[in-house]
User: Fold this.
Amino acid sequence: MSTSNRTKLLLDIGTFLAFLVTMDPHFSGLAIHEWLSIALAGTIVVHLLLNWEWIVNVTKRLFIKTTNGTRFNYVLNWLLFIDGILIMLSGIMISESAMPALGILLPVNSAWRSLHDVSANLALIIMGLHLAMHWNWIVTTFKRVFLGSPGKPAVTGIEQEA
Amino acid sequence: MKTLFRVLLILVVATLIGGVMYIGVDASGSSNAPSFGDDEGRPQLPAGGEFRPDGDGDAFRPEGRDHDEGGLGFPGGVIKALVLMSIAGGIYSVIAWAGKKAKRTVTTT
Assistant:
């Protein structure tokens, strides 16, 4: 088991759990919801850095030689990234805890609240698809990291196709 | 150095996308904003000059989020998130499985 895969899995599990908590401000409270979301932005940057080679490789051969599954995965990842930015931006614009605590007071625009709700619901659907596309990798790596089960190197369904 | 460049690239792309979104929302928000004239529905203040909303007087609470305080209640939102993600993932899995099956059928015949 490579350290890289172990790091990726642990980071992804942590990010996913934090994502779930931020999806329910009733459960966590508004302050935790906002600060945890800001912290999530940092983990997403690390997630992208850990998968940088894949991003660069697929970007290079996106229109030349790649499978439809990989293309779909690539577009889906971009949608998730853009939606994540929208969630973060709209969240900052309607912030009632984190931004005021930093001394930043932003103008009120009700459109940001609707956008925050819509983009958060959209993120759930895209995240569901994202997880389903990488399910093989998640299960195989989880078994190898936590159960010590040997086996062939973990690859995603998309990588298998490519 | 390479990592720093990558981080900067991610931040620049995110800032550009965020900037476009901000301009879009700001433009649509300001163009849709209603303009109130003094005689177009804005409530006239009483002679005293202080606005008092209807209600029980002392206990005025401004409108706002209904989840401001929060704190380890029933995690309904978490369950909703899990259910929605499972449905989306399930639909994808069924489509992917059907596609693979069709491919196999074509190659064996």
Observations:
- The two ends of chain B are 55 Å apart (CA to CA).
